């Protein structure tokens, strides 16, 4: 009776044919390669979008051949797995199925609790406003402000550009001090340009005023 060994694993689907060719050349056709594509739904929970294929290589027992095939399989971007003894394979399958089911129940429970938590956090007393929408608007405002300031052009020790500001001079100076403390441009100053003839303002569209 011929003793056989096996190597199993998972690789990208696009590499399955290359694996077959390499195994055939390395063993001169003395190994059998079985492949099967894995359903994409299995990897959705892990956020994996790449198509995967599982493989099983069966070959005659021998250290030299096994080492060569292990080297080939390790060269692919994937994982190798040890298969259980055929006599207890069904027990191993049942054990894994039980673990998977418990893990899914845990995920569903956690997802439900997180959803309920966010619903409770989103509530504003005596108001029908959406708290997270308010936070989102605030973050968008900050992004727009910093995005506008980043468009200013530094030339030597000056920063040129236009930006809209609804602050008075004192409040604006406070903002300038904050920018100056975190900026690589020392001595930051803002000069108000009076556009008497409105030659500049006519060309510029004022932004939405967000308080």
TrEMBL record:
One Pfam family here: V_ATPase_I
Biological process per Gene Ontology, one example term: vacuolar acidification
GO cellular component: proton-transporting V-type ATPase, V0 domain; vacuolar proton-transporting V-type ATPase complex
Highest taxon in the source lineage: Eukaryota
Keyword Iron assigned: no
Subcellular location: Membrane
UniProt-listed InterPro entries: V-ATPase_116kDa_su
Molecular functions per Gene Ontology: ATPase binding; proton-transporting ATPase activity, rotational mechanism
Membrane protein topology class: Multi-pass membrane protein
Keywords: Hydrogen ion transport, Ion transport, Membrane, Transmembrane, Transmembrane helix, Transport
The protein's role, per its UniProt record: Essential component of the vacuolar proton pump (V-ATPase), a multimeric enzyme that catalyzes the translocation of protons across the membranes. Required for assembly and activity of the V-ATPase.
PANTHER family associated with the record: V-TYPE PROTON ATPASE SUBUNIT A (PTHR11629:SF63), VACUOLAR PROTON ATPASES (PTHR11629)
Record-stated family: Belongs to the V-ATPase 116 kDa subunit family.
Name of this protein: V-type proton ATPase subunit a
